[in-house]
Design goal:
The protein has 15 helices and 21 strands. The chain has about 525 residues and is of the alpha+beta class. It folds into 3 domains: about 130 residues, D-Maltodextrin-Binding Protein, domain 2; about 120 residues, Dipeptide-binding Protein, Domain 1 (Dipeptide-binding Protein, domain 1); about 220 residues, Dipeptide-binding Protein, domain 3. The protein has a 6-stranded mixed sheet. It has a 4-stranded mixed sheet with strand order 1-10-9-8, with no helix packed on it. A hairpin with a 2-residue loop joins strand 6 and strand 7. The N terminus is likely disordered.
Length: about 525
């Protein structure tokens, strides 16, 4: 199960030197690790997009200020230590010395300032929320970065990994439009592996960074991320040893549950404790028929969440019951007993809502027609789309399914707003400010930015509650605020949450120490090694 540390709402005054050690006692160096990157990423610009396939590659190249272990404890990365002022409005990061970019240039506090203020706050999907309170960053010397905040933001300390907030080279991006810069496809980081080659349609190759700042790491000589569009071919490649690792549904659950019984192959749900993935449907709330909340609620009522989990994801998952994951119960933010989230379909209630909304069936029983776009991340999503077509057809909503390549899909949904319904999944992350607000805030209608408020839903009352929830330090009061947020979203339903996902990682038993990070496949893989 995923866990969320009980740190929100606690007053943090000073954090001393961060601790984290790496032992090479039993590990073996060398070897090429071949893993699945599914689907092929649209770019390698993790500072522009949180698209899943980018996360499978970029965090091996880019570092963050922190990493996190499987219990969500902070582990030092580019920041060796940090200190927070008594009022929570100043955070001083002491940066690691002797770190160089892959092109040999030194990493300094100027890179941190540039990465946060000019890139992450401006063009990253989640950065404007993660760093919303950061008004400036002082750099008194090359190895000190002082973040000045308008208000305390303890959630920010959980958003500093190489996946979530990559530090990028100022000397290669300054003065350029980050959306079109060459760095997007020829990345240069400080991480464990250097970018070597991207052969379109086949693979991306990363080689060991011989000057990596962690002594003795990484163990592996090379990473090769293979792009294999066909699901059955991916499964066969895992069976015959061509690839050694597949995460985030790369191996469909129907095959994963079979492979887990094979000698030499294992399956785990470890390595996902920080992301809280939620499958969902986004609507274009600006156009009929989905501009009507009653019709969006009818869609939620018509879908059988347990059927999806049991028959397509083979039991891995939990029905959604709110706009927030039940994992937020640990911090007192999850609200129970909300309407419009049935575990099993309530067809009668769905039809009644549609009738009340004036969406009457015609002679053929059809009330409305729409195109359902599907996240292009594998066969499970195609099968889910087929089920939704049938289920919504039963209440009179006739669907046409559309499945496109990743760049086309991202552009359609987040740049062109050329969609009616879109099946997707979002990471809610360790705090709602980081992963949930971007769905619903009016300020998150950011055309061209991926995985934000594509529904273009806008509610001033909700905006005020989101702002209050971000700043509230008292845990009890914060829970009340998020309870109100969830009640509004259960009635307005701009996004239909389907189920809390549990991803499976299928891997060769020869691969060791691949799940040492809370980010799993989105981690650096610097401690992974192969048993010869």
């Amino acid at each position: 199960m995923m866990r969320i540390s009980k740190w929100i709402g606690q007053a943090v005054v000073v954090a001393g030197v961060l601790v984290g050690g790496f032992s090479a006692a039993a590990q073996q160096s060398g070897g090429t690790f071949v893993y699945i990157v599914q689907p092929e990423p649209p770019s390698l610009a993790s500072y522009l997009s949180t698209s899943g396939p980018i996360g499978l590659v970029a965090p091996k190249i880019y570092d963050g200020l922190f990493e996190y272990d499987n219990d969500l404890n902070i582990v030092p990365a580019l920041a060796e230590s940090y200190a927070i002022s008594a009022d929570g409005k100043t955070i001083t990061f002491n940066l690691r010395q002797g770190v160089t970019w892959h092109d040999g240039a030194p990493f300094t506090s100027a890179d941190v300032q540039f990465s946060v203020m000019e890139i992450l706050k401006k063009v990253h999907p989640r950065g404007p929320n993660s760093f919303r309170e950061v008004v400036s960053i002082d750099t008194p010397d090359a190895h000190t970065a002082i973040f000045n905040l308008e208000n305390p933001a303890p959630y920010m300390l959980r958003a500093l990994s190489g996946y979530e907030s990559p530090m990028v080279p100022k000397h290669l991006l300054e003065g350029q439009d980050p959306r079109s810069a060459d760095l997007a496809n020829k990345p240069v980081g400080t991480g464990a592996y250097k970018f070597v080659e991207w052969k379109k349609g086949q693979y991306v190759r990363l080689d060991k960074n011989e000057n990596y700042w962690k002594p003795g790491l990484p163990y592996l000589d090379r990473l090769v991320g293979r792009f294999i569009p066909d699901a059955s071919t991916r499964t066969a490649a895992m069976e015959n040893g061509e690839v050694m690792y597949g995460a985030y549904g790369a191996i469909p659950n129907i095959d994963a549950v079979r492979l887990r019984d094979m000698d030499g192959i294992s399956v785990t749900t470890d390595g996902y404790s920080m992301i809280n993935p939620m499958s969902l449907i986004e609507f274009d709330t600006t156009k009929a028929p989905f501009d009507n909340p009653a019709i969006r609620k009818a869609v939620s009522l018509a879908l059988d969440r347990k059927f999806l989990i049991e028959n397509i994801w083979f039991g891995y998952g939990k029905p959604a019951t709110s706009a927030l994951s039940t994992n937020f119960s640990a911090t007192g933010l999850y609200a129970k007993g909300l309407p419009n989230y049935p575990a099993n379909a309530d067809v009668a209630a769905a039809k009644a809502l549609l009738d009340e909304a004036g969406l009457k069936p015609d002679a053929d029983g059809i009330r409305a027609k729409a195109v359902l776009d599907l996240i292009p991340y594998g066969e499970d999503w195609r099968r889910a789309g087929e089920y939704m077509k049938q289920a919504l057809g039963d209440v009179g909503i006739e669907l046409e399914l559309r499945y496109e390549d990743v760049p086309t899909w991202l552009k359609r949904v987040y740049a062109d707003y050329d969609f009616a319904m879109n099946v997707n999944y979002f990471y809610q992350l360790p705090d709602p400010v980081l992963g949930v607000h971007r769905h619903y805030g009016t300020d998150q209608i950011r055309q061209g930015t991926h995985f934000v408020n594509s529904s273009r839903y806008s509610n001033p009352k909700l905006d005020s509650l989101l702002a209050a929830g971000a700043m509230e330090a008292d845990a009890g009061k914060r829970g009340e605020i998020y309870g109100d947020i969830q009640k509004i979203l259960a009635e307005d339903m701009p996004v239909v949450n389907l189920f809390e996902m549990q991803f499976l990682t299928v891997y060769s038993d020869k691969l060791k120490d691949h799940a040492t990070s809370a980010l799993g496949a989105y981690g650096p893989f610097d401690r992974a090694w192969l048993e010869q």
